[in-house]
UniProtKB/TrEMBL annotation:
It comes from the Bacteria. Belongs to the pyridoxamine 5'-phosphate oxidase family. Catalyzes the oxidation of either pyridoxine 5'-phosphate (PNP) or pyridoxamine 5'-phosphate (PMP) into pyridoxal 5'-phosphate (PLP). The keyword Oxidoreductase applies. Substrate binds at R7, R8, E9, Y10, K65, Y122, R126, S130, R190, L191, H192. Homodimer. Its cofactor is FMN. FMN binds at residues 60-65, 75-76, 81-82, 104, 139-140, 184, 194. This is Pyridoxine/pyridoxamine 5'-phosphate oxidase. HAMAP family: PdxH (MF_01629). NCBIfam families: pdxH, PRK05679.1. It catalyses: pyridoxamine 5'-phosphate + O2 + H2O = pyridoxal 5'-phosphate + H2O2 + NH4(+); pyridoxine 5'-phosphate + O2 = pyridoxal 5'-phosphate + H2O2.
Amino acid sequence: MSLQDNRREYDYGKLTRESLSASPFEQFTLWMEQAIEAGIQDPTAMSVATVSAEGKPWQRMVLLKDFDQRGFVFYTNLGSRKAQEIAANAQVSLHFPWLQLDRQVIVGGRAERLSTVEVMKYFLSRPKGSQLAAWASKQSSRINSRQALETQFAQIKEKFAEGEIPLPDFWGGFRVVPEEIEFWQGGEMRLHDRFSYLRSEDGSDSWEIGRLSP
């Protein structure tokens, strides 16, 4: 199998400095809305890249659950590999692959734990099956079989058959506070348009925008 000739031309559109919002969050909102309108499957799916205490990187796909000028939010088991690696090194990177639109967004920043109030509010909004799954799965740990997981789920379902399902003390969320956000628009002949927003070093909400070579 040869992959060298498996290519296509990126010709969806262009990205110019004049068309960019002064705020990366406003620009992200626009692109997210356009991704949803375009019918992209799982437009909120993003890769979360973490680095272990030993310096080993790892990635996995999760769903973005909220964002505003404070950052980008996702939820997870606090015993998971991603949560453990964030505890050791809070610097993470997010990647949104909107390839049907020839677009990518890359976020670099620091992950901060969400408050119990924020986590509880979201947990109670989840479907009951998802709440039960949070209790049943010891995320990232080794299991003997799929049957073992399903048995655990059935036991949890029986345990919480009546009343509301409580928030597990091992389940929480993170907000990635961005320090850099890149918007990538594919271009013809691989002359892509890339713009980077860098947060001001004085800690304010001002951003420096620069074009990057493709």
